[in-house]
């Protein structure tokens, strides 16, 4: 979109496709945002190679820097691992003014070594000699551990209390630790939703979430 000072960056989740964000993209366009969207190969998680995730983060950050240099206001949008990747952008770039996320807040190694979905992935990491501790070390630069300094810009996080992939209590602990460190976060919880459910809710209610993010930025 030409002649706009606003940009939204969307990063898809695990096995996610940009097409699943079409309604969100249209809404953002209607609100005057130019949209940049990234989807990524699931091998960053499934191949058992710990170098792939930091490499992906580096490539996205490098491309993001080039594409957003002319924008005054940049919003990050993502769910699940997409939100985790957006955290890297929100940490590093001063032109990121807010984030709108769902289903994130747990360290990636913890998710891989605890969630049933990633059984095959953790077997491959283990075969390559990476237990949870070693994977934490390998991904230290892209991790989201509680207590780590985050960013000065606000964000919204929607969580499902029945999420079995991004465990609700662990995600909440991370978010509360960040809030204690001064991060401006609005946490939205849904009692009866799991991981897929909170992502679907997030996309369906993105218009309301966008309005809430605008209120946060105006304070």
Describe this structure in words.
- This protein is of the alpha/beta class and 219 residues long.
- It has a single domain, classed as Rossmann fold, CATH 3.40.50.1820.
- It is 46% helix and 17% strand.
- The protein contains 10 helices and 6 strands; from the N terminus they run βαβααβαβαααβαβαα.
- The chain has helices at residues 22-30, 43-46, 52-67, 81-92, 108-114, 119-127, 132-138, 168-180, 195-204, 206-218, and strands spanning 6-11, 33-38, 73-79, 96-102, 155-160, 185-190.
- Strands 2-1-3-4-5-6 form a 6-stranded parallel β-sheet, with helices on both faces.
- Strand 3 (73-79), helix 4 (81-92) and strand 4 (96-102) form a beta-alpha-beta unit.
- The two termini are 28 Å apart.
- The model has no long low-confidence stretch (mean pLDDT 92).
Keywords:
219 residues, alpha/beta, Rossmann fold, six-stranded parallel beta sheet, 10 helices
Topology (elements, then pairings):
Blueprint (H helix, E strand, L loop, with lengths): L5 E6 L10 H9 L2 E6 L4 H4 L5 H16 L5 E7 L1 H12 L3 E7 L5 H7 L4 H9 L4 H7 L16 E6 L7 H13 L4 E6 L4 H10 L1 H13 L1
Parallel strand pairs: 1-2, 1-3, 3-4, 4-5, 5-6
Helix pairs in contact: 5-7
Portion in beta strands: 15-25%
The end-to-end span amounts to 28 Å
> Per CATH, which architecture?
3-Layer(aba) Sandwich
DSSP E strands, number: 6
Tell me the Rg in angstroms.
Answer: 16 Å
Main beta sheet strand tally, sense and closure = 6 strands, parallel
Silhouette: globular
Strand order of the largest sheet: 2-1-3-4-5-6
- Give helix and strand order, one letter per element, not per position: EHEHHEHEHHHEHEHH
- The poorly predicted ranges are none
CATH topology: Rossmann fold
Q: What would CATH call the homologous superfamily?
A: Alpha/Beta hydrolase fold, catalytic domain
- What number is the mean pLDDT? 92
Number of helices: 10
